[in-house]
Design brief:
Length: 694
């Protein structure tokens, strides 16, 4: 007998028994309730013995309010129209998404206005179908805004009715958790009177709209055709497959790729990306790649790490990336490289599942006789290591010439003398040593190499008093076509007490003609990349030299804060008069190590056009800064205080031409009498704008 008929018969008999029994003796309300409970338990037990049930499809046709309607625009709070009324009617077909139970907005009372109740209902609808309308666009909760994904779901419901198919599998556990007194899942417990039924667990399957879809494939313009890749490259994009979903969302589950060469002779790995997300990868070898023919090698990417869902009426690009072998046999790869074609082998290379649960296939059939509209090409070339270079140069932020003043213990700590660039081309370079870093004017107590990430490398002096330092065992790698910025810093302990400056600078990669190898480096293929004055084919270029620095125990630290420039051209009718250029230099003076004294006259020497002497035709004046005292013929700047001097300089000439003014020397003293010291480091920097005098 059919199991369902069996259950029905049992139920009928049970009901009959329940009806006949009272004819002998009237049952109490409690007894009737007990009988009903027993019948329900019996029904549950019989159901469990069937091993599970399946609920079928419930459906309803599109509401009358939706006749001739499709959702073609976004809807939100305040929208109005017949499509809003259709929206409300669709929502009202499901009690869990109904706009209202009664009154305005309820079933049969829909309106054409998108109000607050409609928004709440839309949120419930979006949450119910989250996997179809929220997840594909990266949302986790309904918004109440009817956008493309929500409209697609609503349109699918209009086409197929507001039907959904839910498959539910019920599994009943019958051992280990039966009521007391039960030995099997049959009958009732003599102890508790309960039916001998175990615990029931329910697992829900896939909920779909029932809408069928299709995939339209094409080759993406990104990445571009005719890419060039090199030995050792990793995750280089070579091919893009554009897929469009029509009719329903499509869950892409498989992509087969074709190469026209034995690809594992050149590549090590292949990757499939959905945007920035890697969804699949595979090693390339004779086990993973199928040889169909001598010009057809195929690999299938499946078992994706994350869902690849294409929302209906939208495009998605799947990008193929590859790793290139670091050392390809010279018999396979010449200097001109080898060109490989990549694409999909057939119109069934891509498999996806639509919202009806049906497999849908697509692909751009690989046709080598056609133009490259059915595939893409990329050329694999030997490593660029043979053309690799490393260039050394001074960075534009390297400190300009200046005074450096010791601390109270007469020590200088961590002073930056030079900031320089190391730039690679064509290949990654590993630097093991930077040797023969020469200091002029001082023998630093310590020398450091500091990169722009904060890593510190300590140098060692080649011999006591040599003023030459080597930086060894660096193991410092710079990626191909990358510039790294590093600095040379020094410590100078117990600076000599001489009032005369110790002028110093440093060079790297040498400009003194020595045959010593300055930088020792290795290319990615292990080949040496060294530089020396005796190597003709030198792949390390350039050098870097710092500006000068004057080291003192006590001195002013001076900076040019600003400069303004004006001109006055000759206005005489015969042009035999004078023209002038006037510049105002604002100079900040900080007294370090003690009080500093600036002469009241003649301290700031101004020339023109780089001259290192003051012309008679230049007049210069400056006044006592606010807060600065006068002692004799000096302005006193107290220790650690800052004074700003405004120097007004004017140059007059009867000649025409381009002219600029410059401060080339500053006189100062550590006392209010005696011989003045002078600083001349500012010659190249403290200049005005250039003006043309007529």
């Amino acid at each position: 007998m059919n199991s369902k008929k069996l259950i029905a018969s049992v139920i009928a008999l049970a009901i009959a028994g329940a009806v006949v029994a009272p004819s002998a003796q009237a049952a109490t309300a409690e007894e009737l309730a007990k009988q009903i409970s027993d019948l329900q338990s019996q029904l549950s037990g019989l159901t469990s013995q069937l091993g599970g049930t399946t609920t079928g499809t419930t459906s309803s046709s599109a509401p009358a309010a939706c006749a001739g309607i499709s959702f073609s625009r976004n809807l939100t709070l305040g929208s109005s129209g017949t499509d809003v009324k259709c929206l409300q009617a669709l929502l009202n077909q499901d009690p869990t998404t109904a706009v209202a139970v009664s009154g305005v907005g309820s079933a049969g009372n829909e309106t054409m206005t998108f109000g607050g109740l409609t928004k709440v209902a839309v949120v419930a609808f979006q949450n119910k179908y989250a996997s179809e309308v929220l997840t594909p666009v990266g949302l986790t909760a309904g918004t109440g805004f009817v956008g493309a994904a929500t409209r697609a779901k609503l349109n699918a419901m209009l086409v197929g009715g507001a039907s959904t198919t839910t498959t539910t599998t019920t599994t009943t556990t019958t051992t280990g958790n039966l009521p007391a007194g039960c030995t099997s899942a049959v009958g009732y417990s003599p102890v508790t009177g309960q039916a001998c039924v175990g615990t029931t667990t329910t697992t829900s399957g896939v909920t779909t709209t029932g809408a069928e879809g299709s995939i339209t494939p094409s080759i993406s313009s990104v990445p571009a055709d005719k890419q060039t890749v090199y030995e050792g490259n990793s995750k280089i994009a070579i091919y893009g497959l554009k897929l469009k979903a029509t009719g329903s969302d499509i869950d892409v589950q498989r992509v087969t790729l074709k190469f026209d060469a034995q690809i594992y002779s050149y590549l090590t790995n292949v990757y499939l990306y959905d945007g920035d997300t890697e969804v699949a990868s595979s090693a390339l070898n004779s086990s993973t790649v199928s040889k169909v023919s001598s010009s057809d090698y195929e690999i299938t990417m499946a078992g994706f790490a994350s869902k690849v869902v294409i929302p209906v009426n939208t495009n998605k690009v799947l990008t193929v990336k590859v790793d290139v072998l670091p050392g390809i046999s010279s018999g396979l790869l010449t200097s001109s490289g080898v060109t490989v074609k990549v694409g999909t082998p057939s119109a069934s290379a891509v498999r996806g599942v639509d919202q009806a649960g049906l497999n849908q296939y697509a692909g751009v059939a690989f046709t080598t006789s056609s133009l490259s509209d059915t595939y893409r090409t990329f050329t694999i070339k030997p490593s660029q290591s043979s053309e690799a270079t490393l260039t050394v140069s001074r960075n534009t932020s390297s400190p300009v010439s200046r005074n450096i003043v010791a601390d109270a213990s007469n020590d200088i700590t961590g002073a930056t003398l030079l900031t320089f660039n190391l730039k690679t081309t064509k290949d990654a370079i590993n630097i093991s040593d930077i040797n023969h870093v020469v200091f002029i004017g001082i023998d630093p107590s310590n020398a450091y190499l500091v990169d722009d990430d904060g890593s510190v490398f300590t140098g060692s002096e080649t011999a006591a008093g040599s003023q030459i330092f080597n930086f060894s065992d660096l193991d410092y790698t710079i990626s191909a076509d990358t510039t790294k910025t590093l600095s040379i810093k020094i410590d100078q302990n117990d600076l000599p007490s001489s009032a005369v400056a110790t002028t110093t600078y440093v060079t790297i990669a040498g400009d003194d003609g020595s045959a010593t190898e300055y930088i020792i480096a290795t290319k990615s293929n292990g080949g040496a990349l060294t530089s020396s004055a005796t190597v003709a084919d030198d792949r390390i270029f350039g050098s870097a030299r710092s500006y000068t620095a004057d080291l003192y125990r006590k001195a002013p630290v001076m900076t040019l804060a600003s400069v303004s420039t004006n001109q006055q051209n000759d206005t005489t009718s015969n042009h035999q008069g004078t023209s002038t250029i006037t510049a105002v230099f604002s100079v900040q003076v900080v007294a370090k190590g003690g009080d500093i004294y600036i002469p009241t006259t003649g301290a700031f020497n101004v020339g023109y056009n780089g001259a290192t002497s003051t012309a008679a035709s230049i007049t210069t004046s400056y006044a006592r800064p606010i807060g600065v005292d006068t002692e004799g013929s000096y302005y006193k700047v107290s220790q650690d205080e800052t004074a700003t001097f405004s120097i007004n300089a004017t140059y007059a000439t009867m000649d025409d031409g381009y002219v600029y003014l410059d401060v080339y020397k500053v006189l100062w003293n550590t006392a209010s009498s005696g011989t003045n010291s002078e600083s001349t480091y500012m010659t190249a920097d403290w200049i005005s704008d250039t003006k043309y005098l007529q």
